[in-house]
Amino acid sequence: MTAEIVVENVSFVYPDGTHALADVDLQIPRGHRIAIVGQNGSGKSTLVRHFNGLLRPTTGRILLDGLDTVGVHVAHLASRVGLAFQNPDRQIFAGRVKAEVAFGPRNIGMAQVEVEQAVYAALEAVGLTGQADTNPYDLGYSRRKLLALASVLAMRTPIVLLDEPTTGQDARGVARVQKIVSDLADTGRTVIGISHDMRFVAESFERVVVMRAGRIILDGTPSEVFARESWDALASTYLEPPLPARIGVRAGVGSTPTDALLVEALSQRKVAAS
Amino acid sequence: MVTATAASAGIGRRMVPFALATIPLVASIILINTFLFPGATDTIVSIGPLAPTWTGLTAAAQATLRVLAFALSVAVFSLTTPTDDLLTDLERRGVGRRAVFVIGAAIGMVPRLVERAGEIVDSQRARGLDTEGARWRRVRGVVPLAAPMISSALTEVEERTLALEARAFSAPPRRTTMRPLPDDSQQRALRWGLLVFVVVAVAASVSGALGIP
Amino acid sequence: MSASTPAPRLSLRDVSYGYVGTSANVLQGIDLELAEGRIVGVVGPNEAGKSTLCLVAAGLAPLAIGGRLDGTVEQDGVDTRTLSAADLGQRVGILFQNPVTQLSGTSVTVYEEIAFGPRNLGLPLGEVATRVEWAADLVGVRDLLPRDPARLSGGQAQLVALGSVLALRPGTLVLDEPTSQLDPLGTRLVGDALADLAAETGTAILMVEHKTDLLARMADEVVVLVDGKIAKSGPAAEVLADPALPALGVEPPSDIRLRAALAEAGISFDASWGPALGVQAAVGARE
Fold first, then answer.
1. Angle (deg, nearest 10), helices C125-139 and C154-166
2. C217 — contact with chain A (CB < 8 Å)?
3. In this structure, which CATH number among 3.40.50.300, 1.20.1530.20, 1.10.20.10, 3.10.250.10 belongs to the domain C10-252?
4. Cα distance from B125 to chain A (closest Cα, Å)?
5. pLDDT tens, residue by residue, C229-245
6. Are A223 and A240 in contact (CB under 8 A)?
7. What is the pLDDT of residues A37-91, one digit of tens each?
8. Inter-chain contacts counted by CB atoms under 8 A, chains A and C
């Protein structure tokens, strides 16, 4: 069986001559949670914009469910791939929160009854149910960002791309985003997240792809990517492994990128010792 | 006159895109004037219901020349005058700092506006807005594209205002000039020459000597 | 030694503030003091009034945006309401989240961008140059001086914005989430520049920041703002380790969270793990 998204030897050059992606190969199976990390300008955003056709490879191919996306309109791909952008203010246009959220579902031809259900469920997921009739610009930045996320969730696409979803969120907002990622995965959806927040990455994703200068330099589980052997590669793109991974190495219990994994490893050692 | 100035500055070739940009406007001017000039009776040739007129064609030619002259003036200006030279000079001449800032910011903003527009189009296309399909479907995209453009411009203006205010933008003394600009006699002569030409041209136009309505 | 302590750089006494056109106060009864060379972090849930606190502390509210201010805000013992914008800018600088919107947009080089403030003051050209070079060195952007400010990375642009604020030589600096739009490298560059600044020049820094790991490294004191009021304040190590922090909507620093998780499992934190806490310890030498 082929993976849901296949990136085949893709290179991308911007019109101004910037080489943003170089020979990228990547396979993302259905239902996976995959994080893409790296410095600004490393090609993360350029890569995910290929998944819904906003950008087309200069060379190479992008396959969705085995079919080449070349020539398929973005408006059509939007019903399969939802992309929540980093800056909510680049998309908010409606006078009411619920109209903003309904925009995407309507565009992809969802039936009216389903639109209403989808809008309500998406607002519920981001905690904005009470603001359905509010003007989006009366919400603070962090809630506008959650609104933008809801407007993509409501499209109920099999693939969801999240570009820096936790930026500007407080502890509760981050917890909400983490819950949304796990709920999406539970319903069989593929989640692809871009983030600078290594703790969020280690806790919410099962696979981490590290990019540098348009190439993939590491690809594996959080335990693999944040293991001691990878630290030099991470440092080359200014990334630091999360604290529990660093302590796990000092404590000699292997690669433990989350608090839970470290506690578990230390507990097991304690039991074994006694 | 404009083309002569351009030629003397050696930028003739780079003005072509500016001229090309006027084509849609020029085409519609020619068509509308030639075929629909009100009250004109001097028909060139009758093709069914279409009746192009000489009066219309003349009016169209005049209007076209005006559009071209305007577009090419803008082109000459933007291609020959580095923004910072313009601003430095305005400042040295005692033009208020607010005016100088507004002119500078407006010129400097163009690339950022283009970039922002691109991000907005991408955001809405990702939500299924059809910008590639049938024309009537694309019309529906006007509000979702225009509204974020305006609102994000407003929020940015607010933030920038505060940031500039905090950098003593409204301090009373005259700003420090960074560098004097060279202004040789040739440049001065040309500037005065152009000014005289403008005065003469306007006077001639007003008195009806050129026959342009 | 003198009996009287010098006036704090920044002091807010019983400050309340409401925006124009609204009846509710966004800030209520805020008391805050900031001494020379101190870094005070401000944390709190979204929409608690943190950005408003920045505008009030920098004197921009009400000076630039109007609104109702009760209580007193003083810079070096002078009530900010008696100061003009130009005086204010030389006493307190402010830096916002987005590096792009706070650059003037009219400068062709980083040099001119940093010179923007000193030129507004009408300083002699020689003094402008001295200040530009001083500020550029302070934030480590001397190499960028001839560059176009529109073509910098986010971290570089934020350093330039910081430098152009510092060129007015303010004694106090107010920062509203200065690293939120930056990648890890940018965050590190800006964080290091700020820590050096406080240590070398005695600049007092008030800093709103979600990244409590950064505050744990830099701040002397931390204030928790909830619903426009100060819910908690004190030495950084103490406030950031407060078990009530998550309930207030604030993410504790990584090591505090980890220690809590370990304690819950009955595991004590081994002193030999300490070096792993140092941020740069894990990934080796910088550059």
1. 140
2. no
3. 3.40.50.300
4. 6
5. 999 999 999 999 999 99
6. no
7. 999 889 999 999 999 999 999 999 999 999 999 989 898 999 999 999 999 998 9
8. 108
